[in-house]
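quick one, two chains, predict together pls
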Amino acid sequence: MSAVNEARLREVESFLHEQIPLTRAMAVRVASWDEQTLILEAPLEPNHNHLGTAFGGSLSALTTLAGYSLLWLLLGEAKAHVVVRESTIRYRHPVRGTLRAVCGRPAEEEVEKFRAIFAQTGKARLSLVCTVEDEGRVCVEFEGSFVALR
Amino acid sequence: MSAVNEARLREVESFLHEQIPLTRAMAVRVASWDEQTLILEAPLEPNHNHLGTAFGGSLSALTTLAGYSLLWLLLGEAKAHVVVRESTIRYRHPVRGTLRAVCGRPAEEEVEKFRAIFAQTGKARLSLVCTVEDEGRVCVEFEGSFVALR
């Protein structure tokens, strides 16, 4: 990872920790971003449920945060408020270790359309898909509709 | 609220705080249950987002917890693990005050079917709907599919 990229990740992480206190309680970390895939992590300990596996609320929060963060990274210097409008999450298998939300950059055509509409109207919507994998399989599938507002 | 009911609510709340550490960070309170409607609350302060309104992750966690708690109350003394399989949440308006998740008891026919299948097979599924209201309007709609396992 380049130093610029690393600095940008720490900036997003600091923003989350300062602006959304629950991210500190969850110990959320912005782990990596290679322009295609963003990874957010959180340790199991503060995020477990009554069965000792990852709490659904933490998984939902972490995938939502991955969506916010990906939009901020895609928008770069553009000043934008990002909100989530709707999301669906499927818990297929329990997550037994570190919570690791992987959010993929949408197809370039989608990203370009999103950026163009945002630049033109100050408001644009983007659908994002995140997964949480553990022990080599997809445990959680998340789909969210996010809106950026100037 | 009867003393028995009040004691049961404190029991559910203690269970959440002991078993799911994030509920302590969120300061979740089991506010009321009249056999028809369960209300869980959390103050805005530890649950706000970067815009000063309720964080989507907190709203999703609180409504999920309301679903768990309603299933525990419906199952009463029956020993059960409760998990969430899938949920959809719509954020219609920002929540600017206390987060207040209202979860309704499903139609009695559904509850009876759920209890009978659980008693017979040790596994049953129930769909639950929760809303979060603020300033007199529905701000968040949540639908979740929960499973109880013996």
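Chain B is about 35% helix and 35% strand.
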